[in-house]
Each structure stands twice: as C-alpha cells, then as structure tokens.
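Continuing the batch. This is chain 6 of the set; chains 1 through 5 are on the previous pages. Same settings as before, nothing changed between runs. Recording input and output for traceability.
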Amino acid sequence: GSRQPVEVGSSRNVAISREVCQFSDLGERGGVSPPVFRKQGIEMLWEVEIRPAPNQPDREGTRVVSQCHTLGAASVREVQTARSFLIQGDVSQSVVERVASGFLADTVVESFVIHDVTTGHASVTQHSSLLNVLFKPGVTDNVAESIRAALVDMGLRVTAVRTCHKYTFNA
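Output for chain 6:
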C-alpha cells in the first residue's frame, strides 16, 4: 500500500513531510487531490531523485549535519541529500530517463534514480528518517513551472511538475 504524507512542520511557504508525497492535481488551484495513476497513453506520476554522484561529496548534507550539531542535535551523525522532481503526465519511463539524463541532472557530478510513484517505493532504511520539503499548495514553485514549460515546449505531454528537497538522516 502507499503511504500518505505526514506533515511534521511548516512555515509560511514550505511544508515538510516524512513520506513520499503523492499528488494527482499539482496544478495552480492549490488543492492536493488523491493520486491518479494510469499507464499507456494515460497520466503517470514519476519521481526523479537526483543526488551527488558516488565520487562527489554531499556538501549540503555536510552543512545540515553541522547545523544540527550547532543546534544541539548531536544524535544526527550523517545526512544524505537529494533534490527531487515529481513529474505528472502521459510520459513513459524511458522518456523520463532521457529527460533526467539530458535536462535535469548533470551526469558528470550527479546520479539519478527514477521511481514510478504509482507502485510506491521505500527509499528509507530501518535506521534512518526521510524528510521531504515541498512548497505548500498555492505557493508558486518557479523552478517546477519553468521545467514543466520546457518539457511541454519539447513536445511532452506533461501536466504538472513539483520540486522537492530530500534529507535522509543517519542513513
């Protein structure tokens, strides 16, 4: 079964959740609807997760660990970070892979993984916690909107894109 997001904190513009977020309507209306999953000529929801390549340092993770220690959270030993794009539309996995490798990720210094959100996935080990940081509904996600527009200009049938920052603690 799929896991629903659990909001663990928020600010005026950003919602923070501990699970994979699943959306069907990522549009401008500001609402979040139950997921719509379809295959072959019908809309799908994909997640492109981009991390530093194995031979590259995770500078953001190092920065977060340092800030946690400054705030007295000594139990935080390691943080792995990723940026993630949720892409909804009538696109196949092979198309999403081409978009990820040629447009979203710098494959010289980054690696990426594609998840079919329709099937769900567990990207957190037993001894770690995942924190997803997304814009709240109704707050403009300029990067996502620019990517959606570019993908549509490329002739892809993409209906929505959202960005997410992921933090895995004590991975």
